[in-house]
Amino acid sequence: MPASSPFLQYIAEEMHTRRYAKRTIETYLYWIKFFILFHKKQHPKDLSNEHVEQFLTHLTVTRHVAVQTQALALNALSFLYKEILKRPLALNLNFNQSTKARKLPVVLTQTEVKRLLATIDPQYLLLTQLLYGSGLRLMEAIRLRVNAIDFDYLSLMVWHGKGGNAVKSPLSQLTL
Q1: What is the pLDDT of residue 176?
Q2: Which in 165, 169, 172, 173 has the greatest CB count within 10 A?
Q3: Quick one: CA dihedral 19, 71, 47, 28, positive or negative?
Q4: Distance CA 126, CA 131 (A)
Q5: What are phi and psi of 48, to 5 degrees?
Q6: CB 131 within 8 A of CB 141
Q7: Phi/psi at 169 (nearest 5 deg)?
Q8: Could you give the CA distance from residue 135 to residue 156 in angstroms, rounded to a whole number?
């Protein structure tokens, strides 16, 4: 994974060694890089809790990010300071917390779903139907194997799901 600096490359390698998910690594690197750029390319070891507070406040006041986005940025910086720089952030950070509500998801009607599925390439149709009908995450569906299907109980066994837990998902509701 090419990073724009040796420091970011080191963080990526460290996260990969700790078996962080690829998307988590990408997201944390994005927020760490944004933090560094926000403070005019100063190295994080030279920055303090107050700099983190300024950055998190900036996200709320200027960028108007959602609560979850601000929390994700805080988690990335917390990882940086605790695990990489070995200097954990203070527990009592004083920053403006976002109050922007999470956007409600757009839900398609059954007719819209049928029209959408009718346009999908047959090569990807079964995977798409599984994603829609079972609620699997993309990587969970991609990693499925035939032996993960239990036809007797109409269920799937998801082995490498989010959090590394094995989960059984019922197939009985997979109708369109």
Answers
A1: 45
A2: 169
A3: positive
A4: 9
A5: -115, -175
A6: yes
A7: -115, 130
A8: 12
